[in-house]
Amino acid sequence: MTPTLVRHHRHTEPSAPADGASRARDWAEIQERMLAPLYEAVYARLEVGPATRMLSLGCGSGLALLMAVGRGARVTGVDADPDRLALARARLLPAAEDRGATAAPRLTDTVAAAAEGGPHNLITAFTPIGCEAGDGEELVRALETAVPSADRGSTVVLTGWGPPERCATEAVLRVAGRLADDGRAPGGGWRGPRRDDLEDVAFRAGLKPDGSGRVACPFGYADMDSAVRGLLSTRLFEAAVRATDRWQVEKELAEALHPHRRPDGTVWMSNVFRYLVCTT
Fold first, then answer.
1. In angstroms, rounded to a whole number, what is the distance separating the alpha carbons of residues 118 and 172?
2. In this model, does residue 98 exceed pLDDT 70?
3. Is this prediction's pTM over 0.90?
4. Phi, psi of 184, deg, nearest 5
């Protein structure tokens, strides 16, 4: 399964600061679908269906939840971004009603509130770690709150970027780290994945690894504008924007993307993501 090239979305002022709602829309309309092959591979392996009670950490604008609902699962999602969460509600609630779901999706902005909706038998963390310093620690804290809401022996899925040599986007994302470091902006930028990132999180969260897999998730964009906006919507460039300005980040991001631009104007990068299946 490969992502569909996203259509071009015009905007009149490329260098103007984007508000949270605009970034959330770019995430939902451009970037989020790039990880759909990862969601589908995990759901197929775990046979997600009507017996599944899933808690999604960092659910974003709800695509992974929507795919689980399509398989009959009962879902709870948590995300700290209010704009992404609003888009998830707009997607999920009508979809659940159309499918005659026995329980409406629960969406909240804190892990503690999401955990109260248990017991769950599947917890997913589909935001790949290995991007920023501290993202593993943040996930461990979330799991410490979420795991007690799960039945004993439940499944937890952790995800991360694959080997750098198989992720064309890594070199592009390093722009975030370089600009943040040059501007001495605190707490930002691309760190880069390490071999045992997922196992380290599992160990610290008291989980037992029980298998893993790799999934190809190419990033495909209809044009350079969509590519820049999609990558900016990941929030990995926020520290770089603070350290310099949005115009500078957009300019250098476009330059880094240039080798991946095809003659027809599309932008295409091959990537591999890794997932680790654990039990509580």
1. 39
2. no
3. no
4. 55, 40
Under 8 Å between Cβ of 44 and 36: no
Q: Express as a percent the part of the chain with pLDDT over 90.
A: 70
Written as six digits, the tokens of 93 are 């609630």
Residue 76 confidence (pLDDT): 96
99-123: burial string, b at 16+ Cβ within 10 Å, e else: eebeeebbbbeebeebbebbebbbb
Q: Got the DSSP string for 228-260?
A: HHHHHTTSTTHHHHHHS-HHHHHHHHHHHHGGG
Query: What single string gives the DSSP state of each residue in the chain?
Result: --PPPBPP---S-TTSPPPHHHHHHHIIIIIGGGGHHHHHHHHHHHT-STT-EEEEET-TTSHHHHHHHHTT-EEEEE-S-HHHHHHHHHHHHHHHHHTT-SS--EEES-HHHHHTT--EEEEEEEEEESSSTTHHHHHHHHHHHHGGGEEEEEEEEEEEE--GGG-THHHHHHHHHHHHHHTT-SS-S-----TTHHHHHHHHTT-EEEEEEEEE--EEESSHHHHHHHHHTTSTTHHHHHHS-HHHHHHHHHHHHGGGB-TTS-EEE--EEEEEEEE-
| Contact (CB, 8 A) for 88 and 57 | no
